[in-house]
Structure formats: structure tokens, C-alpha cells
Amino acid sequence: MGDMGRVPVGIVGASGYGGVQLVRLLKEHPGVELVYLGGESSAGKPFSDLYPHLGHQVDLTIEPIDLEQIAARCQVVFLSLPNGLAYKMAPTLLEKGCKVLDLSADYRFADIETYTAWYGGDRNDKAIAASAIYGLPELYRDRIASAQLVGCPGCYPTASLLALSPLLKQGLILPETAIIDAKSGTSGGGRQAKTHLLLAEADNSLGAYGVARHRHTPEIEQICSDLAGHEVTVQFTPHLIPMVRGILATVYATLRDPGLVREDLITIFNAFYRNAPWVKVLAGGVYPQTKWACGTNLCYIGVEVDPRTDRVIVMSVIDNLMKGQAGQAVQCMNLMSGWEETLGLPQMSFYP
Amino acid sequence: MGDMGRVPVGIVGASGYGGVQLVRLLKEHPGVELVYLGGESSAGKPFSDLYPHLGHQVDLTIEPIDLEQIAARCQVVFLSLPNGLAYKMAPTLLEKGCKVLDLSADYRFADIETYTAWYGGDRNDKAIAASAIYGLPELYRDRIASAQLVGCPGCYPTASLLALSPLLKQGLILPETAIIDAKSGTSGGGRQAKTHLLLAEADNSLGAYGVARHRHTPEIEQICSDLAGHEVTVQFTPHLIPMVRGILATVYATLRDPGLVREDLITIFNAFYRNAPWVKVLAGGVYPQTKWACGTNLCYIGVEVDPRTDRVIVMSVIDNLMKGQAGQAVQCMNLMSGWEETLGLPQMSFYP
Amino acid sequence: MGDMGRVPVGIVGASGYGGVQLVRLLKEHPGVELVYLGGESSAGKPFSDLYPHLGHQVDLTIEPIDLEQIAARCQVVFLSLPNGLAYKMAPTLLEKGCKVLDLSADYRFADIETYTAWYGGDRNDKAIAASAIYGLPELYRDRIASAQLVGCPGCYPTASLLALSPLLKQGLILPETAIIDAKSGTSGGGRQAKTHLLLAEADNSLGAYGVARHRHTPEIEQICSDLAGHEVTVQFTPHLIPMVRGILATVYATLRDPGLVREDLITIFNAFYRNAPWVKVLAGGVYPQTKWACGTNLCYIGVEVDPRTDRVIVMSVIDNLMKGQAGQAVQCMNLMSGWEETLGLPQMSFYP
Amino acid sequence: MGDMGRVPVGIVGASGYGGVQLVRLLKEHPGVELVYLGGESSAGKPFSDLYPHLGHQVDLTIEPIDLEQIAARCQVVFLSLPNGLAYKMAPTLLEKGCKVLDLSADYRFADIETYTAWYGGDRNDKAIAASAIYGLPELYRDRIASAQLVGCPGCYPTASLLALSPLLKQGLILPETAIIDAKSGTSGGGRQAKTHLLLAEADNSLGAYGVARHRHTPEIEQICSDLAGHEVTVQFTPHLIPMVRGILATVYATLRDPGLVREDLITIFNAFYRNAPWVKVLAGGVYPQTKWACGTNLCYIGVEVDPRTDRVIVMSVIDNLMKGQAGQAVQCMNLMSGWEETLGLPQMSFYP
Questions:
Q1: Going by CATH, does the domain composed of A155-320 fall within 3.30.360.10?
Q2: Which ipTM was obtained for this model?
Q3: Transmembrane segments in this chain: where (chains A, B, C, D) (predicted)?
Q4: Per-residue pLDDT tens for D285-311?
């Protein structure tokens, strides 16, 4: 059991970038005690072997993944693993009464057919998958609050959906015109040694990838369709940017009503996010920089209208490892625990 | 006069990034002798004071700008100055018989009304402006070859137009659907000390700027309209990327004929550029990286089709200071001089 | 007056990098209320005009610098100004009873002759300067605790002195052999637009500057001499590194006793810093990375001995804007206020 | 056989960073024809699969490594392989009459005992190893010119030795005081996917490695000893810098004659390198930036004297993949072939 009054929590998959963010956030979170770190390849190693600079604060050793054990010690479990593993572990944890937050794609889809079509695998956990709530609090706050299983959104979908939601929900755009040109730092590729993510390759260079076929596309479309009330297809293009952290989604769409001006839309965005402490809509003419969000759970949104083309251009920035991953998972945990949505999460980026 | 057989050339505005590229290219060019460097604030300084690493190859001093003098000593003059200065200098140089290549915006527009609407100023040089040829050899090779005055394209327009031209010329897309999401290294901002271009500000960050109002928009539209045969309005959004050099333009447009597949388009692009030594159309599934073009005059183009949305996505990369500026000017000079288009220009980027 | 129980504090010079760090740290500090921001060129502007991403947390406007006013409203005042201004302002503030922490070089020297020899100016405030305490808590904790005026150390001296102090204090090295090869991110140059700090110039490049004449040299020597008990001259060479934040000081010195091995020295360092919560001495064979300290007030120290040369090599890393500047000032304020040295300061860097 | 008059050359190990530099340099070199590329893991692949941006210039396929074949087709062979492989291949090539340039450590040591002590392995090729010439033309120009086998220097030794040679050769310093604090871009780690070389890890960070035990130490000491005429031990510390290319060696040493001033030393350096086209000694007060050398075969050297400490500080910069690797190999080939030392090698870095 945890400290007096603190909820005991654990992380399965503590060695990657998602893991190390969670470790830091949960160690500093006033509501929880981090009691368990699990991993496969790194089992048996002190966490400080992997991240020496955190040794003075984190005195835990990576343990093997034993689900019964984990359930016995933790009330809340974060699964921060490659796609295709969580859905084999979560059922046991749920059965034992744990709350589970999965950071992979496994529980992001309402139907497992869409999942298997894009991610492969052979799943027959229809009921559990259907019970999972999509962990984007700005859209599904109440459902998350009462969920036992949350599928945390991908990094690109988070930035894209926060930009698109007010427009789709209010019917302000022609959905089929939506184009998301997204740019991400290389930490989105995880802590895996791949040639194209080497500094020598990625630095001072820039390119698109996964054009017209990136696996975050169906995830974005699923939620867009939910918001629009009908099937929506979007254009989504990710780019790799020579920087560590941060995502910018530049979103283009044609306005239904060409009479709308920038200030109208800013008003609408502000109203839509008036109860969302982690979304900041910027004043007219101010466009967000990814660095502003770095290290925080914030999403900054800039809105522009081009009267020459009747398009709205929305720019949203997040830290891909915070609001795009670990921070959002903690935000969801806060809701699931009845705490303030902002509890224990950084509000101010350092600069520069 | 120059070396035996070499054409004497000069650069007005030799201290900036455009200038230093030109100096290097012209020093290594087998057809010319660089005999004059001019500038205002740096007049009197040895060039090697500004760029010490080139001192061993460039033994020239920046001279004051005396147009009579320049015309007496140079057959070809490059003007590499802030917007609004070239149109005051070029007339004298032209009158004296010089060939003039202007790297600013001054001679990019067929009519000076468009220029003054976006750049300001009070011009009454309609005839001279109208006589200037837009220096994009892939579109206007023959006209450049016989021009006396060339207005070299902007960096973003170069990347954007090379991506769009085959599509517009062949009528393959709905022009009003064209969206150009462009990304540039910070050297595009020139060698001027501005806070937002500091490494401490710009590194590890990313943002859009000039949304819906960047001055390269009318330049792109002017040429797109020429290609399409009617007025075309495009969406153009530039972004500042934490890197030194390079532009990627990611261009989206809806296909008129949804039956076209990627390979059809690659064939069309290859045909369009079959005589263009500086454009390389990539094989299917290969997307260009800006680093590939770095230091060369090349433009690499990748083409993708999304059958889910009936859109074509074209990605073009250039080095903004080479094909996007100084390299293209030298390419134009080659044509104006009756030389091979590739003479004296780097063909292979170093890597990584 | 401040919040119930919170000490009202102010910052003179809030617009630069030191200022914005202080703003963030003081806004999140549980012991103080930030009630005043002052500046000259930016007076009248909302702070959020300068740093839009902090607008949601910092609702203050930069005010003109009126010392009477400041003293009336603030118990503690941070001066974050260019060298040569603080010594004209501090006397008034001190007289009115404020505690003053100066982040410039003005109060770092026990005698003003050394100051004027290296920094120029015409000072006749010998007594006040002599009363200032050098704000390096790891060496002068008690004196800082009872000080009214603290001269906060420079960024390079902080990293250098934390590496050298145990060696000098214990007489383990020949002081005249000490060489400090220091490397800093470009934010050390401040938020001033200078050509050599542009991303286009500084990125992917590296060089030394101020060789044999950098103004942090006498500051380092003053404290080294104090520690050694006699005049010490050191070799100090700073380098500009293509990154935003962070300093690494690689310090070389010849051991008096060649029999000492690495583990001996690590033991000595650990003992020296056993009460220093912000210094972490690393295990044998672990060398610090600047990123580990980024955003925190920590200094990580790695120690190596080369038995082939009888030299010790000490590597210390800090965040130049935190332990090297604003964080250290807050650490000093904590001591001056009778609070825990760690109060309100970040302990864990995010990574990567 | 090659083009009329061109020497047929081959590269074994064409896929790594050393390989791709050699490919580019040899393709553009007027004296040779590149007829063979060999590799193991990449055998059978078109070179353009590995480096798509060079496909338009390099129409070669990686072939398996068949030494008889290679010798039959190539007069000059570059071995660009991990340490420990060249000494198994070179003998056959030499026997068949090829000239061999090895870029690994295999042939850098006059005696194989030193090699095996630092690199391991079980060698019994004493005679061949002893016949190899150390490929630093600025020191061993004549011997290289008549060599059949050249062991090309490491990147750090090249920068270090060019800084130290004039001092040691003239006996100007106390050799045992020499400290080399070296800084390298991450491409020095090769094109191998290692976690610590990922952009997400290495960017915006900085650290030392291999302190007091890096394998370039004995290589530096061997040549220093040769120059000094007695055994010399040096302190060598490499650092990883968040940039792609470039090395800066900051070298400290105590002057024998404290009366020497900076200008004396610059004169001595200029005299020492008066016939060395690839070394540029800078004017007093100018310190080299790594970017100046980037893409060229140049070494820029800055010299400073600190009269307070009687030390000389020499700063040398090179491009680690050019003068530090492939460029230097081509420079050696030029000498071995009786060509100008500068033939086919880039002289002017682009900037910025």
C-alpha cells in the first residue's frame, strides 16, 4: 500500500520515453505513490541505470511483469508498451479491480476491426475494447471520470482533434476539406535505435513520412466522425522535424459560412474550451510555437481565417510526450480519481 | 576585364547570405571571373573580414556602390539587396549594357501594381518591370536565355511552383484546392540579427508565420495563373523550422480525375521535367528530405496519391539559398550566357 | 502587500532570459508573491506580450523602474540587468530595507578595483560592494543566510567552482595546473539579437571565444584563491555550443598525491557536498550530460583520474539559466528567508 | 578498366558515412573512375537504395567483397570498414599490386603490440603493419607519396596533431603539459543505430566520454613522440557535441619560453605549414569555427597565448568526415598518384 492517503500506482513499460515521463510526473504528483515499475528487457535493473540523472529521486528497480503481483500492489496501472501488448495484459488487471490507462493504440478504437485493419493482430476482446474510453478529456471528460479502462490518444490525434473539434462539433467547416499537415519532433519515434532517427541523419533535415497511410489517420477519423455525426475522411500527413519534442498541427478546412471572420472563430474556440484548463486559445494574430508547450500538459491554439480562400487555418501545438502521451494519461487519471484535472501537472514551460 | 575568356561579373550586396553563396559559386564557376563586390554598410572592408574562412580563396574588398563603375567593369551584375533597392539601380546598369540578375522581389512581377500592393513603394518603371523575365528556368528557359533582366524567384515560390507546375499545366487538379504547407530553415530570414531567429529562440521550436498574408503568395499565384490559363488563388502557409538551410513544400490538391494513380503522376512529372537537369522526380514511395538538396542546386520531388481522398500530395525540397536563391541565379546566368545550365553548380550534396 | 503569509517580491529587468526564468520560478514558489516586474524599454507592456505562452499564469505588466515604489512594495528584489546598472540601484533599495539579489557582475567582487579592471566603470561604493556576499550557497551558505545583499555568481564560475572547490579546499591539486575548458549553450548570450547567436550561424558549429581574457576569469580566481588560501591563477576557456541551455565545465588539474584513485576522490566530493542538496556526485565511470540538469537547479559532477598523467578530470554540468543564474538566485533567497534551500525549485529534469 | 586515362578505384565498405563521403569525392575527382563498391550486409543493393539523393550521379550496385576481383578491377582500393577487418584484406590486395588506403585503425600503428593493447585482436602481420605509412600528409608527405599502404589517421588525431606538431617539432612546449580537449559532432560515431546518438538523446546536450581511455590517445602519442624525439604522454578528452559534423580540438600546453607572444607563434605556425595547402593559420585574435571547415578538406588553426599562465592555446577545426576521414584519404591518394595534393577536393565551405 502507498503513503497515507496516496494511491499506489504502477507503470508497465518504464524504460521508454513514455515511461520516463510517467515516472517523473507520478513521483511529483501529490495524489499517488509510485510503487511499481515493470519491464521485460530491463527487468532487474535499477531505474537509475537507465536514467542516471533521476537516481536521486527515483529509487526503484524495474521488475518483471507479473500481472497478479501488479494488481495486488497497484490501484492504478499505466501500460506504456508497444502496440499489441496491452490488450493481452489489461483484462487480468481489470478483473482484479485495477484502473488501467493504456498509452498504446490497443484501446483507442471502438471496434477492433478498425484496429486490426491498421495494426494487425488477431483480437477477440470485442467487449473489453468497446468498454474502453478514448482518453481525450476535452471531449470525453465525463466518460473518462467513470471509466475503468482508458485508451490514451496518440500524439498526432491529440493535436489534430483539439484543432478540429470546435469546427466539427459546430458544423462550421466542410469536413471533407480538412487537411492536417502535422510536424513532430523525433522523440515521437521512441527510444529505439533507428538509423533515420540518429542526430547525424535527422538534424538539419526535414521530410514527410507515412503519407496517405499513417496509422493515426483512422484514429483521427473515428473521433471526427463522432463529432460530425457522420463518416469523415481527413487528409493527414506527418513530418519529422529536427527537434526533440513538440508537435504542431496546421489544419486547413473550408468554412461553410464565408462570412465568418477570425474573431468569430476565436470566440467559438474559447467557448468550446472554456472548461478545459489545458487548452489555451491565443489572441488574434498570435500563432503558437511548439516550445511554448514543451514540458507542460498544455495545448496552445492559434486561429486564422483567409478571406481570399474562405478557409480557416488552425494551428495547435503540444508537447508530444506530455499532452500527447504521459501528461494526458495523468490528466485522465486525475479525472478517474475525482481530482482536479490539473493536479500534479506542469503549467509553465521554461523558456527558452 | 576578366581572365582570358572569362566573363567579368559583380555582386551588389555581397555581405548577406545570398551574397556569400554567390561569391562562392562565382569563384568556382569556370565561365566567369568575379571582379567586383559592392555594399553599403560594409564598404571598405575586406570580404574576409565578414567571412574569414573564405579569405584564402576570395581576395576582394567590398566597394561602394557606384553604378557607372560597376557597369564599366562587369558584363553581368547580380543584385542581392533588400526589396526596393534593385529597381533604382538596374535601369542604369541595363542602359550601359550589363546583364542584370536581381535576387530581390523587385522584378518578379509582370505588373508593378501587384508589387506595390504587397511590397509598398512608389514605382513608375512599368516598362522595365514588364521586360524582366521570371527566373525559373524549368518554366521559362527560352525567355531567360534571351533576357537582359531577370527577376529571380523567391525561395518558397521556387519549391512551390516546381511541385505544382506539371499539375497545373496539364490541368490535372482543381486549382482552387491547392494548399501549400511550406517549411523553411532559418537562413531564409537573412543575416540580420532578429530575436526570433536566435538559436536560443528558434532551436527546438516550430511555428507558422505570415499565415494568409505572406508576400510570396502573389508571386506563386501569378505563375500558377500563367500555367493554368486563368486566375488561380492558392493557400500558402510558411513555417520556420529549427535548421539552417532547406525548404520542403508539401502541396495538396484535389485531382480532377480520381482514376489517376501515383505512377501515372510520376510519369507525368518525369515527362514534364525530362529536360530539367536540376529537378529529380523520385520513385514511388520515396519522399524527399531537405538535406538531400543541401549545398546543391537540385530540387527533389516526391509524389503520392491518396485514393481515399482523391488528392495528390507533392513534396518538393530545395536548398533555399541555392535553388531557392543564389544557385538559381547562376543557373539563369548560364542560360543567359549560352552555357550549359549545370555549369559550375554543385550536383551532389554531402551527407550526412 | 502579498498574499497572506507570502513575501512580496519584485524583479527589475524582467524581459530577458534571466527575467523570464525568475518570473516562472517565483510564480510557482510557495513562499513568495510576485508583485512587481520592472523594465525600461519594455515598460508599459503586459508581460504576456513578451512571452505569450505565460499569459495564462502571469497577469502582470512591466512597470517603469521607480526605486522608492519598488522598495515600498517588495521585501525582496531581484536585479536582472546588464552589468553596471545594479550598483546604481541597490543602495536605495538596501537603505529602505529590501533584501537584494543581483544577477549581474556588479556585486561579485570583494574589491571594486577588480571589478573596474575587467568591467570598466567608475565606482565609489567600496563599502556596499564589500558587504555583498557571493551567492554560491555550496561555499557560503551561512553568510548568504544572513546577508542583505547577494551578488549571484556567473554561470561559468558556478560550474567551474563546484568542480574545483573540493580539490582546492582539501589541497589535493596543484592550483596553477588548473585548466577549465567550459562549454555553454547560446542562451548564455542573453536575449539580444547578435549575428553570431543566430541559429543560422551558431547551429551545427562550435568555437572558443574570449580565450585568455573572458571576464569570468577573475571571478573564478577570486573564489579559488579564497579556497586555496593564496592567490590562484587559472586557465579558463569558454566555448559556444549549438544548443540552447546548459554548461559543461571540463576541469583538468594535476594531483599533489599521484596515489589517489578515482574512488578516493568521489568519496571526498561526496563528503564535501553531503549537505548540498543541489549537487549530485556521480558514481565512478558515469559522466554527466548537460541535458540531465536542464530546467532544474542541479549540478551533476563526474570525477575521473588518469593514472597515466596523474591528473584529475572533473566534469560538472548545470543549466546555465537555472543553477547558473535564476535558480541559484532563488536558492539564495530561500536561505536569506530561512526556508529550505530546495523550496520551490525543480528537482527533476524532463528527458529527453 | 577505367575511362581513358582515369585510374580505376574501388571502395570496400561503401555504406557507412566514410563510404558515402568517398563515393561523392571519387565521383567528382578528375583523376579517377569509381568502378567498384563493396559491402557485406548491403551486397546486392543499388547504392541509391542507401542514399537515394545520389542516385542520379552514382549508378553502382554494392558488390560482395571478393578480393581477387577487386584487385583485378581496381588500381587503388579504399578500405572503409570497422576496426579489425582491413588487416585481413589488405595483404591480398597489396600482393596483387593495388595501392591500399585504410580508413580504420588497423594500419595506424608502427608496432602491432600497441594496436592489440588498445584494440584487441590477434595479429601476426608485423612486417606489413610496419610498412604502412601514417597518412597525415602535413607530416609525412614524402613517405606517403611513395607508399603502397597508408593507414589514414583518426579524426581526433588529425585535429590534435595539426595543432600540436609545430609546437612539438620546434620544442616550444613542455610536452607533458599538453591537454587536448576535443569536441566532435555525432557523425563521428558512424551510421550505426545507437541510442545515445539518437537526435532525441544527443540534441541539446553535451558530455565527455572515454575520459582517460579513448583509443585515439595512443595514436596521438605515437606521433607526438615521433615529433618530440622522445616518449610523450598527452591528456586527451573527447566530447560529443549536438551537431552533425566537425571537430574542434582545444589544445593547452605550457610554453618553454614564456617570452613568446601570440604573433611569434603564428609566424612559426605559418612557416611550418607554408607548403600545406589544406591548413590555414588564422590571424591573431581570430578563432576558428567548425562550420568553416564543413564539407572541405581544410584545417583552420587559431593560436592564442595567455601571458598570465604562460600557456599557448591552439584551436584547430576540421570536418571529421573530410580532413578527419575521407578527404584526407583522397589527399593521400593524390600524393600516392603524383597529383596535386588539392586535386578534386572541396576548398570552400558553404555558409551558413
A1: yes
A2: 0.97
A3: none
A4: 999 999 999 999 999 999 999 999 999
